[in-house]
Description:
The complex is a heterodimer. Chain A has one domain (3-284): ABC transporter involved in vitamin B12 uptake, BtuC. Chain A is built from eleven helices and two strands. Chain A has helices spanning 3-36, 43-59, 65-88, 96-118, 143-165, 167-177, 179-184, 189-214, 224-235, 240-265, 269-284; strands at residues 134-136, 139-141. Chain A has a two-stranded antiparallel ribbon with strand order 1-2. Chain A is globular. The model of chain A has no long low-confidence stretch (mean pLDDT 89). Chain B has a single domain (2-83, 159-262), classed as 3-Layer(aba) Sandwich (Rossmann fold), CATH 3.40.50.300. Chain B contains eleven helices and ten strands. Chain B has a six-stranded mixed β-sheet, with helices on both faces. A four-stranded antiparallel β-sheet of chain B has the order 2-1-4-5, with helices on one face. The chains are: A mainly alpha, B alpha/beta. Chains A and B meet through α6 and α7 of A and α2, α3 and α6 of B. Bound molecules: adenosine-5'-triphosphate and magnesium ion. Adenosine-5'-triphosphate (ATP) binds next to β2 and α1 of chain B.
Amino acid sequence: MNESIQTFLQLMLSGMSIGGVYAMVALGFVLIYKATGVFNFAQGELMMVGAYFSFYLITQYHLHFFQAFLLALIISAFLGIVVEFLILKPMVGEPIFSVVMITVGLAVMLKGTVSLVWGHDVHQFPSPFISSPLSLGGVTIFRSSFWTIVATFALVVIFILFFRVSKVGIAMRAVANDQRAAQIIGISIRKIFSISWAIAAVVATIGGFFFVNIFFVTPDISYIGMKAFPAAVLGGMDSVPGAIIGGLIIGIIENLAGGYLDKLLGGGIKEISSFVVLILILMIKPYGLFGKEEITRV
Amino acid sequence: MLKITNIEIVYNDVILAVRGISLEVPQGGIVALLGSNGAGKSTTLKAISGVLDSEEGEIVDGKIEFKGVLLNRKNSKEIVRLGIIQVPEGRRIFDELTVDENLWVGAYHRLDSKKVKEDYQRVMDYFPILRERHGQLAGYLSGGEQQMLVIGRGIMGKPELLMLDEPSLGLAPLIVEEIFQIIQKVNHEERTSILLVEQNANIALQIASYGYIMENGKVVLDGPSQKLAANEDVKEFYLGLTDVGSRKSYRDVKHYKRRKRWLS
Lengths: 298, 264
Ligand SMILES: Nc1ncnc2c1ncn2[C@@H]1O[C@H](COP(=O)(O)OP(=O)(O)OP(=O)(O)O)[C@@H](O)[C@H]1O
Ligand SMILES: [Mg+2]
């Protein structure tokens, strides 16, 4: 295979795997935003906390990684519900801006608590994946990255089914569509809010689990939230497929920019590239790639 | 079945929207609640459904009872489970959901999934046009189809009492006719009691057995439908059958005069 094509594919693939993590965190943003109208600035922190849950269940309690993973998901779902109940519920009826500020506070709190309880050290995650990379027709990829991509696509399918077929999924869309009408047919808005937070925390934890497999365990991984943010906006803020595709695009662009431009222009391009792309796309499509199509007929 | 006694409803702690009304819906009956804009009809329905709090409204006095159960402090979810379903005004379908999804979500609180499937077929038989459009986004339906869809969504909730808020609003007479026939059919076939809010007194009194007329938050007149339809004032102000030719506001008539006439 031509070497430059090979490099390109290599960059694409590793971009997709990090993009998959962005996608999962972005998905959490979108779920909460769609259902409750709140922009949750603590999404990256939820991911980080979820990663710590998995890490400590494996290293301290010597659980099999799969058990640890499942248990971490359950704990984070519970955390999502508790956060919604203790912090967001009392804020119902307050201006949305104040509620968003509360999530900023929540981010600080979560990160502070993790640093306090588990310290600031950087740990290697005991990865369940074999360290020898996979070779896919001339392009190599780490198994952890490969499974991150697989998990991302699996999540897309799961969420599409969830929102199209399941009773709760359809009710969540109904609440996002028209809260009053949903309330009048007997849907408990409170319950839907708390389910949204639970799911957002769960997908963040899945993202966190895969991210620490390709990176390290440290409280600072919550910065991924800042990358997931452009991903969510790029996807249109209220679109589930949009969040996933937005995440993948941001991941790929970052990696390509890092691979090609950093060498020419010095470091840093990788970090800002996603925001540059975001601004360009928003100039053309102000509501993002998959922003809500307004139905004009009444 | 539904019994309202002297309720008073206040918005934002100051606006008195409903000032002590009483009404009753008998088991299996169709009762019309009539009145012009701002009379307090929707407010009354919202109170029954338990959704006032999301609009800063509150029942400050009186009682709402359903089959002997006091509803005043119950939330919308509990009230739906007791069998009271409201079809809100303005055709509030979920426009981003398909026709089918709109119907299924109407049965959200139900656990008898086999019966839900039967009810789905029943709704499709009542409104065959919805069967044709079942996979489409509800936002693209015509006004009449959307009205059929909200009513269908209401039926999916398995109501014992179905409350319809101005189902005729903004629809062509033929469609209104069709919809009202279905409402009557639902009442006959399911023994569903119906509380029908309307500005179109003419058509409402045709299917209702009893009617209440509201103004400024009060019931100013009530009686069996034929009697109401024959009443001179009702004829003049709600049925548009005025000798003068132009439609006056009911408020133009001096209050004491109206009172006197109704009492006679
Ligand atoms: N959310 C609210 N906050 C404050 N006032 C309200 C609210 N909703 C209704 N009102 C007031 O309460 C009164 C009754 O309104 P309501 O909507 O019940 O009237 P209606 O009889 O349904 O009229 P229409 O036929 O126009 O729908 C009106 O004066 C209205 O301005
Ligand atoms: Mg009204």
